[in-house]
Specification:
alpha+beta; Rossmann fold; Dna Ligase, domain 1; D-amino Acid Aminotransferase, Chain A, domain 1; 3 domains; four-stranded mixed beta sheet; globular; binds adenosine-5'-diphosphate; binds magnesium ion
Length: 350
């Protein structure tokens, strides 16, 4: 049988560059080489691209490659353009936000994961919140602002929310630019910080909660895993905790009882649908301590994918190995592509 050529794209121009290297290394390692022929496209921190045979997944090594400003559609790159399917393993802005997905769509190539439209919806916290509300999902009370008008922000925040609150840029990820705020003075600094990353910011009430994550995959029919819990080592799950200290503890899966687990799964299912997602995603939830209410926080369309990451670990807990998970995700990518192509062909009367 002819092997399926899988173009792994990793690195990227985001704060999660080094996580992407680890995710890509794990995916490369676990891809069944009897069925798939992986090849590697690395994007450095400057956003330049290279095709590489270097499987170290180390930045110092990869630096030595010859880079191009963009995927060059030339003969030299024939191998890169020849993938049967692309697998973007890029976390955060420029990788998870629909941009690269749009490039594959434009090129008429299948790829793994959410399409460009739903990726954008998931990345934009304000838009996602609106759609979650529309679907009847509960979430933390929030406000959003598109203008750094401090007077107005302070007034509205005082009126509608009570401290402590979270101030976030609308579409960053990795907790970059996020602050937990306890008073007016902190609010001013946090608003400036958030606006330095984005032209939209979100302010939301801090919830006393247990932090849950759950894996979802599929297109027309979707599968939802059991939930996992993370226990940040600090006040909240910030950048340092996520990537530098590694002291966060995980419960994979977490046992919460049938009723609650069913409610959590239903919420995850609805949330995935509410953003019109396909492929796969990790849905992040808050379990409010006092009320046991399940609140949706956000959806990550390219979640951490290292061997110890929540997304693959949750499937593993259900008996789906890393390698099998990759096979499924690739199959979903092809299915979605073919289905869309049929729709277009039919629409054009072909
Ligand atoms: N409303 C909230 N109440 C309590 N904790 C929150 C709230 N919003 C965010 N957090 C904490 O901050 C972390 C990062 O926020 P999140 O919205 O997930 O941003 P990012 O997209 O950067 O991951 C969460 O994982 C959680 O620990
Ligand atoms: Mg998050």
């Amino acid at each position: 049988m002819k092997k399926v050529k899988v173009g792994l794209i990793f690195g990227g121009k985001s704060a999660e560059h080094s996580v992407s290297l680890m995710s890509a290394a794990a995916i490369y390692q676990h891809l069944n080489k009897e069925r798939y022929e992986p090849f590697l496209i690395y994007i450095n921190r400057a956003g330049e691209w290279c095709l590489t045979g270097n499987t170290s997944f180390k930045e110092e090594e990869l630096k030595k490659e010859k880079f191009h400003s963009f995927m060059p559609w030339s003969s030299e790159w024939a191998a890169a353009l020849d993938a049967d399917i692309y697998f973007p393993v890029l976390h955060g802005p420029n990788g998870e936000d629909g941009r690269i997905q749009g490039l594959f769509e434009l090129a008429g190539k299948p790829f793994v994961g959410a399409d460009s439209f739903s990726s954008q919806l998931a990345m934009d916290k304000v838009t996602a919140k609106m759609l979650f509300a529309q679907a009847g999902l509960e979430q933390a009370p929030y406000l959003y602002f598109t203008e750094n008008n401090l007077e107005q922000i302070v007034e509205l925040t005082r009126k509608k929310l009570s401290f402590p609150i979270f101030v976030k840029p609308c579409s960053m990820g990795s907790s970059v630019g996020i602050r937990k705020v306890k008073d007016d003075a902190e609010l001013l600094a946090a608003v400036d910080l958030a606006f330095s990353y984005d032209n939209k910011i979100v302010i939301e009430k801090a919830i006393e909660m247990r932090e849950l994550e759950i894996s979802v995959m599929g297109n027309d029919e979707i599968m939802v895993s059991s939930p996992g819990e993370l226990l940040p080592s600090k006040e909240f799950y910030d950048y340092e905790d996520k990537y530098l200290k590694g002291e966060t503890q995980f419960r994979i899966p977490v046992r919460l009882g049938d009723e609650l687990e069913a409610r959590i799964k239903k919420t995850a299912h609805k949330a995935y649908r509410s953003l019109f997602l396909n492929g796969y995603a990790r849905v992040d939830l808050f379990l409010e301590k006092q009320s046991n209410a399940v609140l949706i926080n956000e959806i990550n369309t390219i979640p951490g994918f290292t061997a110890i990451s929540m997304f693959p670990k949750l499937w593993q807990a259900q008996g789906i190995s890393f390698a099998e998970l990759l096979e499924r995700l690739i199959a979903y990518g092809f299915d979605y592509f073919n289905q869309r192509k049929e729709n277009v062909d039919e629409g054009l009367g072909r």
